[in-house]
Amino acid sequence: MSAASLTAIVLARNEERHLPDCLASLAWAPGLVVLDSFSTDRTVELARAAGARVEQRAFDNYAAQRDAALKLAGTDWVLFVDADERVTPALRDEIQSVLERPEPGWWIPRDNYIFGHVTRHAGWYPDYQLRLLRPALAHYDPRRPVHELAILDSPLPAGHLSASLIHLNYESVTEFITKQREYAAYDARELLASGVRAHARSFVLQPLRQFYWRWVTLKGWEAGWHGLLLSVLMAYFEFQKYRQLRALQRA
Question: Most buried residue, 7, 89, 130, 221, by most Cβ within 10 Å?
Answer without folding.
Answer: 7
